[in-house]
Amino acid sequence: MSPQSPAVPAVPAVPTATYRLQLQPGFPFSAAEKAVPYLASLGVSHLHLSPVLEAAPGSAHGYDVTGHARVREELGGEEGLRSLSRAAREHGMGIVVDIVPNHMGVPVPERLNEALWEVLREGPASPYARWFDIDWEAGGGRLLLPVLGGRPAEELGSLTVKGGVLAYHDHRFPLREGTEHLPLPELLDAQHYRLAWWRLARTELNYRRFFTIADLIGVRVEDPEVFAATHACVLRLLREGVVHGLRVDHPDGLADPGAYLLRLEEESGGAWTVVEKILGPRERLPVSWPVAGTTGYDALHHVDGLFLDPGGLAELSTLYRGFTGAAPDLGGEWGPTVRRAAREVVAHDLAAEVGRLTRTAAAVCEAAPGLALRDHAPWALRTAIEEMLARVPVYRPYVAAGGPVGAEDRAMLEEAAEGARAAFAVTEEAAAVDVVRDLALGQLGDGEAQRDFCARFAQVCAALRAKSEEDTAFYRYAPLLSAAEVGGDPGSPQVAPEEFHAYCARLQRDWPVTGTVLSTHDTKRSADVRAALAVLTECPRRWAELLERVTRETLRASGVEAPDRHVAWVAWQTAYGMGFPYQERLVPALLKAVREAGLRTTWTERDAAYEEAVERFAVAGPGGPPLYTVAEFARGPAGAVRANVLGAALLHLTMPGVPDLYMGTERVYTALVDPDNRRLPDFPPFVRDAPEETAEARREAEAWLPESLSEEKRALTEAALRLRREHPEWFGAAASYEPLRAAGPAAGHCVAYVRSGAVVCVATRLSLRLAEAGGWRETALELPPGRWRDLLGGREAEGSAGLAELLDGWPVALLVRG
């Protein structure tokens, strides 16, 4: 009789912890499957996969979905996903997948998006036309495709026709029946699409896009048939137990996020679902949404903010303004900088979207009694729309035409209108603001134009917020680079312990199984880079002295100066955050930074001479001989960085919510913005399989911190994750969260709490300041009754525990009773 097979552990319905794997052709399902035993040993309960549906060839992220009906063949297809799921289940783990309901990719060649191909062939009459958010009327019945390198007349020689297909370089477009033999100019006019110069996307694009990316076309999932078609594959995988949870990408791009999530909850059978919702500083997730919570950028802000010294941050900001000489609205101050960026983006990059809103508003004025268009001319409506959009302080309001308006949304839009009116001296513009406000509140009836305006105003708000704040102002305002993070508040990034505790208590009460993160595929810098940068708020004067020194060294060694002082500040801070700033990663990061900032060069209007100057400076300065001075400086506060790295990790892994680890972050992980943060993983057992340059890059980048910190971070991660998995009742929906407050002269440097009376977590904050003040001295933490054992250092304690002894050896403690 053969021995009985060991029982396979059940997959928990609610994750205890997830581990994000960024899939790509170089890291498909089969590679992920090899990682399953290792990830199970860490203690995660679910793998969290980037989008798995068919995407543009070679895509390193998968958000450019081209087909919803099948799993991406480049990753191994559905069989590869099923094999990964089986391997995960054998280790008691489930699968959470990222879904992209807001948009699809416009691939090259275009035939790869079959639904879009049919729309290009058949136009508005295509059964797939309802899939896409296209303003056919604005385009004269044609879809504008901004793909040409120049104006159409200049590009005729690059266009060819063969086999019923129009070709332009790698692009392919279908032809209407009977048009193949027409002369080329007539043929172009006869199609359901119009090929246009790429620059016209800003002003004439007649489809909704993802932010300002014309390669991503908006999908109308508010249509039940479109929802069914675009979700059938994922919902089938859920029903069949291949997939167990969902992450919803960018819900703020949808016409009605609340209604979408209700439908998704019904169809998914209540699977654990989180939404990539980025909350403002005082914004709350709508309680009506049937989700577990957000993906966790709000948690990132609260954890990061604990490790910032408010006084040092203020001094650092003063030093930054003095060093750069930046004007208040061009990086000198956060508020004016973000407002200027919003006005630039809404008037320039989002001109097409504002044009559509203006036409819709004019249509309502024409139809509504008492709102004659002559009293609210289109130019006045457009100006009022721009000013209102620029003043909305969060990603979007949630208002449905004819329905009730929440008090917070009403107050926010009323305040935006009040500010917009005050900005106008012209009577017509001021009066138009009231019309725009009422349209945004859905108060001018329930007609189609009013419903369209209400939804579209909110969608444009989200695009504007992302482009003006995350992708512009974050790169212009740079006193502390780590404060310019997704979900953050660069103007006030610090978080007091009391605020952190209040946030955690609210999570435990309202969203106990929400997602929490520190590093993602979208963070500007990984958590460990931000942990290093945070230390600068504890030593701003030493940072200023370093800047003076390396500036002299660079000039003496190479004669090269930074093209401007803002670039110098950003470059040296980036170099310090990296630890060992080798050029292959530093130069792309700086070029991205200056293009996003848009002060001297942009992605679309590049100043080649300026960018060459940036690169020369990066190579001669932070990437040249002075890098050793930076590395020497970095070793000074390395102990404080260690405290920040381990402290942030402990809080993330034990606070309320479900922690999500980005691949490789169980060790020290120093990544900059994409594409750097999408490097192939080199965690075990893949170090030997990764390209040698990948492993070498990691070793160089992290050489400034001892390998022991990576081992400490992994040990902490394993201890916390296994504790969560073995005792989900201590951390889940029925758990409790209680702050613990130290007493003594250094009490403000301790953050501590108890989970469900069974786990005590203690972290050190502002450790440089702590050392300067004489250390913990007689500061003590009153532990709950019982004897406690530290899973990290092995020390036991009870009653009033002196922090000097409790945290001797480790700057953090993870205590369990017993």
UniProtKB/TrEMBL annotation:
SUPFAM superfamilies (alphabetical): (Trans)glycosidases
GO molecular function: (1,4)-alpha-D-glucan 1-alpha-D-glucosylmutase activity
Domain Glycosyl hydrolase family 13 catalytic per the UniProt entry, residue ranges: 15-698
Highest taxon in the source lineage: Bacteria
Swiss-Prot/TrEMBL GO biological process terms: alpha-glucan catabolic process; trehalose biosynthetic process
Gene3D superfamilies on file: Glycosidases, Maltooligosyl trehalose synthase, domain 2, Maltooligosyl trehalose synthase, domain 3, Maltooligosyl trehalose synthase, domain 4
Protein name as annotated: Maltooligosyl trehalose synthase
Protein species of origin: Streptomyces pini
